[in-house]
Amino acid sequence: MQYDPIKRSLGKVFNQTPYLRILFYRLLDLLLLRSWHIRRAVRQWKKQASGVENILDAGSGFGQYVYYLSSLNVNWKVTGVDVKEEQIEDCNNFFRKIGCADRVQFRYADLTKFSEPDKYDFVLSVDVMEHIEEDEMVFRNFFHSMRKGGMLLISTPSDQGGSDTHDHDHHGEEASGFIDEHVRDGYNVQDIADKLKRAGFSAIETAYSYGTPGKLSWKLSMKYPILMLNASKLFFILIPFYYLITYPLAFVLNMFDVRGKHQTGTGLIVKAKKL
To answer: What is the pTM of this model?
Structure first.
């Protein structure tokens, strides 16, 4: 399944005006189960956060999570870093247009070399670590770049099928379309906890995402639509009607996945603190 061409096509459509881009962000928040898990964890952290926070989105991509974080508190300073310079420029332009350039910035960074000592209160990493071979080096860089009491939040595929080339990953895409970009077939719970401990982190919590309800939801809301869009671009016309029928069920399934505890799942949500 070819996911990136579809993503680029949708991005071009929704990037024509800031309003359309914000609409795209909100649609992604509704459709992508990982966004449900991330936003829930961020809201929980926000309850104990102080008024002014420095936040890092490590691997900021299209800027979806930076937009969400910056919308929660106007006193938060949010930095997005990525290795794709065209996305950095695009995001800086968008946030400038919506009047947030004074508290939101994007810049190039290689996370294996990234270090800004004692700067960030919260570090977010969404679907990044499975792409980086030197993951322990990145974890150490995160630790050194965080202030005491800061929290790291990671979303990544698990080793329970998160990068299965014969099935799917937790993005809702056939892994055969992007498996070459992954350097590991998902994280084992104990493995990622041990690596974070060696980097200096404490109070490490791991939880499976994309359990049974989540896996059914991504089939309805991501896998099947992308398969159809790859088969024919005419499906762009039909896709609103498809979601009118299927999304109510996907919404309920997402709610069960976020609120439930799963014995296994194709995704992992990991929290760790610098104490």
So the answer is: 0.89
